[in-house]
Design goal:
The complex is a heterodimer of chains A (about 110) and B (about 110).
Chain A: E1 5-7, E2 10-14, E3 19-24, E4 31-37, E5 44-49, E6 55-58, E7 61-65, E8 71-76, E9 85-93, E10 96-99, E11 103-108
Parallel strand pairs in A: 2-11
Antiparallel strand pairs in A: 1-3, 3-8, 4-5, 4-9, 6-7, 7-8, 9-10, 9-11
Chain B: E1 5-7, E2 10-13, E3 19-24, E4 31-38, E5 42-50, E6 53-56, E7 65-71, E8 74-79, E9 88-95, E10 104-105, E11 109-113
Parallel strand pairs in B: 2-11
Antiparallel strand pairs in B: 1-3, 3-8, 4-5, 4-9, 5-6, 7-8, 9-10, 9-11
Classes of the chains: A mainly beta (about 110), B mainly beta (about 110).
Chain lengths: ~110, ~110
């Protein structure tokens, strides 16, 4: 099993604040993905990063893949209540996807 | 377009009973994955199939668990006999193919074993 540790595990912030979520592993992945999961639903893909050092932006969300392709971060600017959910990183090795431990984000209006 | 369809959405059963969870992947997707999600262990890969063939079942907890994919549009995950520690949300996901990198998840089947 290839372990991905996410931090923090829980995060509760006020609307308008910025935050960063981290995903770390000792393993190298061919790609890394971020998913968001809402209660009662399955995870939904937000982004895939493939190249070491790659940065991708999705509106107020910024994703970065570490140079060594072992870690990643997700930064949210000016968080909104609609950002509330469970954020999961997933490392891909071949055809297998290993999920991180998850970060539960609550944005308070 | 229909996404991944799972049934039942909720199942409550008693210890020792057989449980069968069902999944219909997105048409044309070559890969199908079964995951289990709990608060303690997060999202764990149980087994995955490629073109209906099981490729890696090393995540299946024990012999009480079995999974089949008789055709490209249907898969089952069976637990026999069920135990309280099997209580979890079980997700099925499909993927278009090697290198595509995206998993499409169903809404999950929440299993409670009393």
């Amino acid at each position: 099993t290839q372990l991905l540790e996410q931090s923090p595990q829980f995060l509760s912030i006020q609307e308008g604040e910025n935050l960063t979520v981290y995903c770390n592993s000792s393993s190298v992945f061919s790609s890394l993905q971020w998913y968001r999961q809402e209660p009662g639903e399955g995870p939904v893909l937000l982004v895939t990063v493939v190249t070491g050092g790659e940065v991708k932006k999705l509106k107020r969300l910024t994703f970065q893949f570490g140079d060594a392709r072992k870690d990643s971060s997700l930064h949210i600017t000016a968080a909104q209540p609609g950002d509330t959910g469970l954020y999961l990183c997933a490392g891909a090795t071949g055809n297998q996807f290993y999920f991180g431990t998850g970060t539960s984000l609550t944005v308070i209006p | 377009d229909a996404g991944v369809i799972q049934s039942p959405r909720h199942e409550v059963t008693e210890m020792g009973q057989e449980v069968t969870l069902r999944c219909k992947p997105i048409s044309g997707h070559d890969y199908l994955f079964w995951y289990r999600q709990t608060m303690m262990r997060g999202l764990e890969l149980l087994i995955y199939f490629n073109n209906n063939v099981p490729i890696d079942d090393s995540g299946m907890p024990e012999d009480r668990f079995s999974a089949k994919m008789p055709n490209a549009s249907f898969s089952t995950l069976k637990i026999q006999p069920s135990e309280p520690r099997d209580s979890a949300v079980y997700f099925c996901a499909s993927s278009p193919g090697q290198g595509s990198g995206e998993l499409f998840f169903g809404e999950g089947s929440r299993l409670t074993v009393l």
